Amino acid sequence: MKRAAVETFDPRPAADPAEARIAVTLPCYNEAATIAQVIEDFRSALPGADIYVFDNNSTDATAQIAREAGAIVRTEIRQGKGHVVRRIFADIEADIYVMADGDGTYDAALAPTLVELMKKNHVDMVVGTRANVTKDAGRGGHAFGNRIFNMLFNRLFGRQFSDIFSGYRVFSRRFVKSFPAVSGGFEIETEMSVHSCQIGIPTLERPTPYGVRPEDSTSKLKTFRDGFRILGMFMVLAKETRPAAFFGAIGLALTLAALCLAAPLALTYFQTGLVPRFPTAVLSMGLVIVATVTAVCGLILDSLARARVEAKRSVFLSYPAPEWKS
């Protein structure tokens, strides 16, 4: 039954490099100050590429300026970068996808290098890591958050990436069409990174300069709001991808709490043969029971998680790997 579901896909054959279609995709929200220059820069770097600007309910003239600059403009009404990326991956047909932001902070001149790296190394995602982003991300809180979240990611999901929040990426067709995006906001890059680690997608990183926004352009990232959203996404992804460890940690914490409550009771019992605080003893036993149930749930869910990984991997492999010529 699972195999039949995979066979409903209609993947295209591997692309001839001479005819490879490249799509530059730019999610945008109120980027009127920078979008025209970004489009021009990417057109110069990748002359044969189609340039798409996905406007996310901008209240300025972003869409109009992008259209006048020659980009293909589309609109996503659900607010959030994750919704925009999901729409891009669903709607755009290409062999190579270049994704960047419309704020001018990424160097478009390096796009051909990232594309060539993907071709030569036969990988499905190349990440343009932002130079010194953990030391200077424009705002001290952002730099600190990048450092902490990258360390947490490496601890939870593996050391495959050094900049999980970079928005400058190049994808193969089979990555784009098999990625089950569920995030709605800035946590979409984290989801991409976890997905790659989970099913073993070949990836590369390449350091790139990270520019500063113009004075009349403001960041859409809210330090605390989006930080908590990303932290929540970490917890959800940990639960989904490593349920045995996730629920096992909860069970261990409950067990330790029960032992702390029960230790004085046990000591008193051995000394006097009495249990002076019976409700505490009941609470301790209840915590042990809940901890046991939690650990068992983690083991069961771990088997389901493994099945999901196999299904995701099967969908990914149902799309042919492009054979780029040197």
What is this structure's SSE topology?
Elements: H1 2-6, E1 22-28, H2 35-45, E2 50-55, H3 62-68, E3 72-75, H4 81-91, E4 96-99, H5 111-121, E5 125-130, H6 140-157, E6 169-172, H7 173-178, H8 188-199, E7 203-208, H9 223-241, H10 243-272, H11 278-317
Parallel strand pairs: 1-2, 1-4, 2-3, 5-7
Antiparallel strand pairs: 4-6, 5-6
Helix pairs in contact: 6-9, 8-9, 9-10, 10-11
Brief synopsis:
This protein has 326 residues and is of the alpha/beta class.
Describe it.
The chain has 326 residues and is of the alpha/beta class. It folds into two domains: 239 residues, Spore Coat Polysaccharide Biosynthesis Protein SpsA, Chain A (Alpha-Beta Complex), CATH 3.90.550; 70 residues. The N terminus is likely disordered.
Which series of helices and strands comes N to C?
Answer: HEHEHEHEHEHEHHEHHH
Number of domains: 2
CATH top level assignment of the largest domain: Alpha Beta
Shape: elongated
Coarse structural class: alpha/beta
- Please name the fourth-level CATH homologous superfamily of the largest domain: Spore Coat Polysaccharide Biosynthesis Protein SpsA, Chain A
- What gyration radius follows from the Cα positions, in whole Å? 24 Å
Count of extended strands = 7
CATH architecture annotation of the largest domain: Alpha-Beta Complex
Strand percentage, roughly? Answer: 5-15%
InterPro entries: Glyco_trans_2-like, Glycosyltransferase_2, Nucleotide-diphossugar_trans
Protein name: Glycosyltransferase
Organism: Henriciella marina
GO molecular function: glycosyltransferase activity
